[in-house]
Amino acid sequence: MSTETMSTISDFNQKSHDETDAEHRVQVELLNELCEAVKKNAPPTVISDIFQQLVDYSKAHFLSEELLMRQMSYDDYEDHVGDHVRMLEALDEIAEAQASGKSVLVSGKAESILKFIKQHIATRDQRFADFLLRGVK
Ligand SMILES: [Fe+2]
């Protein structure tokens, strides 16, 4: 492989890592914002606005992360995507309950999925970030 090709791959990995990292930061910020709003007893419309942003952002982010994992033939793909499916299902359930007027965001279920997302970012996403950086030499 030529030096030029090597540095192109390395640049791609570095760029992918930085973008994914930035997306995770946005996700965590939205999660924290949501928890704050719930704690402060913010109006339901404010809470559902932040929640909707979190859902939309998570969907887009998961898709781009999954595409990147496939491009890189990532070894933890199946389990990682399994986490994404589980998170989206739980977020959808919360959205449905919200829409029907039940304030479930403060319930244990919502809290546990929010914790799960943070945990996912700190573990599986971190593993993928490290994997991307290993390709940067
Ligand atoms: Fe992920």
UniProtKB/TrEMBL annotation:
UniProt-annotated stretches for the region Disordered: 1-21
Polar residues compositional bias, start-end: 1-13
Domain of life: Bacteria
Pfam families: Hemerythrin (PF01814)
Name listed for the protein in its UniProt record: Hemerythrin family protein
PANTHER family per UniProt: BACTERIOHEMERYTHRIN (PTHR37164)
Taxonomic source organism: Candidatus Propionivibrio dominans
Boundaries of every Hemerythrin-like domain copy: 19-129
GO MF: metal ion binding; oxygen carrier activity
Protein's UniProt keywords contain Glycoprotein: no
UniProt signal peptide: none
Keywords, comma-separated and alphabetical: Iron, Metal-binding, Oxygen transport, Transport
Keyword Transport: yes
Family classification: Belongs to the hemerythrin family.
